[in-house]
Design goal:
Elements (H helix, E strand, L loop, with lengths): L1 H34 L10 H4 L1 H10 L3 H10 E5 L6 H13 L6 E5 L4 H10 L5 E5 L2 H7 L10 E17 L12 E3 L7 H11 L5 E3 L3 H9 L5 E6 L4 H4 L6 E3 L13 E6 L12 E14 L6 H15 L1 H4 L24 H31 L7 H17 L6
Parallel strand pairs: 1-2, 1-3, 5-6, 5-7
Antiparallel strand pairs: 3-10, 4-7, 4-8, 4-10, 9-10
Length: 405
């Protein structure tokens, strides 16, 4: 069967090249005639343009080494629905980490946090997924699963996702949505988990509608819905594009029932000018988003793929925290703990190694400063001056040839 498939792939490539090649030749001939008889003709060499194209042409020749390398260095990341922050994070990872040789990141448009959990567990070829920290708690609390927490390990906490409640301006508070029709996205995402949990804890009982958010916003404008909930990292591109008469963002109080699992946050007018008056802010709550993997044994080849990703991702995080990438990357602190979760061993090992390097650097700096103090006036320097000098020392060390990145 595999032999027949390979034969068909090779045939398809040959057919495609049969149609493409004359067109390229004709284009080159026209370009040559326009440039004059003495102009050199330029040949199009796809393999010289892209490592990806080179791999495709190698594959058509049944190059097993290329196939193996592509599969070994490609890692898949299950993201979220179109317009959400997860999708943008997946695209950013591919932009920064892909180098055509060491690693290729393949983001997959997903369906949200709940589906990502299922995909990591059951879908072949899925290595990583972005999910919300409260999703596993919800599934276990509702009795939908057994104790599956030990089957997951987190790579890092990513950022906090804010809860956006878009409603008519007649809805002044969250309590006004009691008995009203509220869209909470599809039931395989994560928004409905956070929304239902928060409404339950606040004693508010809306009539839930499980509708894809792009459709839900249209139904809100037409009056078929009273509110739409979106739990996404702010600024959310999808929410910022919502426009309509008499729509606004409803505040969510950080009351005691929410303080165990959620964080206080706010939404700003500059991010949502059509939903918040100029200079205004709207209180809300947030929940951590995390990058997680299946808890593979270190002896498994899938573990090695995730380990390879972790090293490159952690080494290049600073690039993701610069424009033009999503501003939420600036919230990522690799060493941040996550209550109730176990860190992927390779990620913990990277943190331990780099923590040791940081400690050694600080000790060496302090020894240097102590020697400087003895050699000069003998007076102690101010703590704030030492801190500033230490930051200068770190920047200088990174700029040196051969410095560890």
């Amino acid at each position: 069967m595999m032999k027949r498939c390979a034969t068909r792939v090779a045939s398809c490539c040959a057919i495609a090249l049969t149609f493409v090649t004359p067109a390229i030749a004709q284009g080159n001939a026209q370009a040559g005639s326009q440039a004059g008889p003495n102009s050199a003709r330029s040949e199009i060499d796809p393999a010289a343009v892209s490592d990806g194209l080179r791999a495709i042409f190698s594959y058509s020749n049944s190059n097993k080494t290329t196939r193996d390398k592509l599969n070994a260095n490609t890692i898949t990341v299950m993201t979220g629905t179109i317009g959400g922050t997860y999708v943008q994070f997946g695209a950013d990872l591919a932009s920064v980490l892909d180098d055509g040789d060491q690693i290729r990141v393949l983001p997959i448009v997903g369906r949200g946090s709940v589906q990502s959990i299922a995909d990591i567990l059951f879908l072949k070829g899925v290595d990583l997924g972005i999910m919300r920290a409260d999703t596993l708690d919800y599934l276990e609390r509702k009795g939908f699963t057994g104790n599956i927490r030990n089957q997951f390990a987190y790579i890092t906490k990513l950022y906090n996702e804010e809860m956006h409640v878009v409603a008519k301006t007649s809805v002044k508070s969250l309590a006004d949505l009691n008995g009203k029709r509220v869209a909470v996205d599809l039931p395989n995402g994560g928004t409905f988990v956070t929304a239902i949990t928060i409404f339950d804890r606040l004693g508010i009982k809306p009539n839930y509608a499980f509708i894809e958010q792009r459709v839900a916003y249209e139904k809100l404008k037409s009056g078929e819905l009273d509110a739409v909930v979106a739990v996404q990292g702010s600024p959310s591109r999808a929410v910022s594009q919502v426009k309509g008469d008499n729509l606004h963002l409803v505040p969510i109080p950080y009351s005691e029932p929410l303080q165990g699992d959620y964080l206080p946050s706010e939404l700003r007018a500059q991010d949502y000018p059509s939903l918040i008056p100029p200079g205004g802010r709207v209180d809300t709550v947030a929940v951590p988003a995390i990058l997680a993997a299946y808890n593979w044994s270190p002896k498994n080849e899938r573990y090695a793929k995730v380990e390879h990703f972790v090293k490159i991702f952690f080494d290049r995080l600073k690039s993701l925290q610069q424009p033009p990438f999503h501003p939420k990357w600036r919230e990522v602190v690799l060493s941040a703990p996550l209550k109730g979760w176990t860190r992927f061993p390779a990620a913990q090992e990277w943190l331990d190694r780099n923590a040791t390097v940081a400690t050694d650097s600080r000790q060496r700096f302090e020894q240097f400063m102590g020697a400087q103090a003895r050699d000069t006036s003998g007076q102690d320097s101010k703590a704030e001056d030492d801190a500033a000098l230490y930051q200068q020392f770190l920047r200088w060390r990174e700029s040196q040839p051969g410095a560890r990145r």
